[in-house]
Amino acid sequence: ILLLLRNPKDIATSFYHFSNSMSTLPSYETWDDFFTAFMTKKMAWGCYFEYLSEWNKYADEENIMTITYEELKENRALGVKNIAAFFGIPLTEEELQLVVERSSFQSMKKNSEKTHGAFGNVLFRKGDVSDWKNLFSEDQNEKMDKAFEEHIARTKLGKKLKYDVYCKA
C-alpha cells in the first residue's frame, strides 16, 4: 500500500477549492465558513487528523510505504525510485526519466482532459506546496497548529509530514 500524505493546511486549501468546484459536494461562500467546517469535523470525507490517526496504527507495517506530496515535489526522481523499489518494479534509467517527466504536476494537468475528462480541471488546480499561506489568517494558522500538535504531531506520520518545514508561517 502506498500512503501518500500532504500537510493539513494544504489539504484544507485544496479541499476548499475542490468542494467549491464540485456541484455534488457542499460549497462554501467564504474560506472562513470552510475552515470552521474543516476544523469541526463537518467535511464530506471526515476529519483529516482522524484519518492520519487511523493510518498511523499501520505505519510500521512492511507492506505500507508512506511518502509525502512535499517529498515528491522536492525530488520526484528519488520518490519514483523508492516507490518502484517498494513495489518491486525494476526501472531502467530511461523508464525512470519517462515516469518522472509524466508525473510532474504540469504534465498531468496538461493531459488531464485525456486522462480524467472534464473532471481533470477540478482535480488539477495548482499543485503548489504552501498555497495555504494565501488563505489562512493568523488565528486560523494557530488553530491548525494547535490541532496538529494535539492529534498527530508525536506520531510517526506526524513526524513524516515535517510540519515545522511546510506548515509554519
Order of strands across the biggest sheet? 1-2
Provide the domain count.
1
* CATH architectural grouping: 3-Layer(aba) Sandwich
Q: Please name the fourth-level CATH homologous superfamily.
A: P-loop containing nucleotide triphosphate hydrolases
The tally of beta strands, per DSSP, is: 2
Question: What is the helical fraction, as a range of percent?
Answer: 55-70%
Q: Order of helices and strands, N to C?
A: EHHHEHHHHHHHHH
- What are the low-pLDDT stretches, counting only 5+ consecutive residues below 50? none
Summarize the structure.
GO terms for molecular function: sulfotransferase activity. This protein is mainly alpha-helical.
SSE map:
Blueprint: E1 2-5, H1 8-21, H2 31-39, H3 48-56, E2 65-68, H4 69-74, H5 76-86, H6 93-102, H7 105-110, H8 112-116, H9 120-123, H10 138-151, H11 156-160, H12 163-166
Parallel strand pairs: 1-2
Helix pairs in contact: 5-6
